[in-house]
Amino acid sequence: MLRWLSFLIILFFLAWSALMLSTAPGYMAITYGHWSIEMPLWFGITATIALFIALYLSLRVLNGPGLILRIFKKWRHEHRYESSHRHTLQGLLALAEGDWDKAESLLIKSVKFNEMPLVNYLSAAKAAQALEAYDRRDQYLHYALNSTPGAKIAVELTQAELQYHDGQWEHCLATLRQIQQEAPQHKYMLKLLKQVYFRLADWFHLLELLPLLKKQKIIDNAQLQQLSEKAYLELLLLQLKQGDQPKLELFWQKLPKALQRRKEWVLPYTHFLLDSHLQDFAEELIRDALKTQFDPDLIALYGQIHSQRLNKQIDFALSLLKQQGQEPHILLCLGQLAMADGALSQASSYLTHSVQVRPLPKTYAILGALSLQLGDKEEALRCFQQAVVE
Known about the structure:
Layout: H1 2-23, E1 27-32, E2 35-40, H2 41-97, H3 100-109, H4 117-130, H5 134-147, H6 152-165, H7 169-182, H8 187-199, H9 203-215, H10 221-242, H11 245-254, H12 263-275, H13 279-292, H14 296-302, H15 310-324, H16 328-340, H17 344-357, H18 361-373, H19 377-389
Antiparallel strand pairs: 1-2
Helix pairs in contact: 2-3, 3-4, 4-5, 5-6, 6-7, 6-8, 7-8, 8-9, 9-10, 10-12, 12-13, 13-14, 14-16, 15-16, 16-17, 17-18, 18-19
């Protein structure tokens, strides 16, 4: 708008000047020292205007290369940006398609002129990981860390994730613990940490982590119970393997009461107590578990325990028989306890009744051994044969 207004003013001035010169031509004189130039007025005005135009055009020409250079630089910048964006997109597509070499090449090629180099470096690290180029992977992660301020946790999480998927459990754990110091409640970090502890069979630290996982809603109640039971069981088996009775007893006392009555925990601990000749402790352990739930494996093991309270054991087994009816495993247990108590006739009655309810190989085997004690070799042979058949 301003340009057009200036043009109209100049055009008006020229028209007015031409009109004035036609009515009064006049002349112009320019004097400098001994020099003097005279010319018609119209020529002087025309020359002045021509000089102004020439000066203006000269300045435009002199400024032209700078303007062209700026235009060229702008075009080159936009071209590089568009090319970088295109190559980055192609690299990400190649990464998704599993073309690791192409993905890594395109992503690194386009990183220089990318406004978000972090994406390129992290994606290139994943491609290098797939190619098992771990040195390049770590180098890209280092570049990513330096490229974007405030991206440390994102880079370290990517590093931990790559280490996890490559089976580098110890390295992954070290990376996650670095993150834990800076962001102790980061959900994805906690999720990875749970998985690494599980892979490393680090049941102690997994148990310590479970309350925080529940608080952060990373696991629900069912998963919490499942993981805690798994961890406690593995720790119990580890303690049993080490065979340190005082430490094992202390660990058992720290177990949740519900687990102290579960067969999966009671059976291995009872076997350890029996091997350690701690019959009374073993009997108490099995009896407490059977009070909560009846289980054939538990009652079978109960019959093998010969504690100092054998009469009380028999009374407890009779109370179970009353509750459960004619259950063959309880009858077998009573037969074993009666044999240990020296009541061989009563033991034979229990065992015979048990095979009548359900013929179990173990029952026939014990009945055969009892028959040998009683001197009935023919019956013993028949029972042993039945034990093999059954």
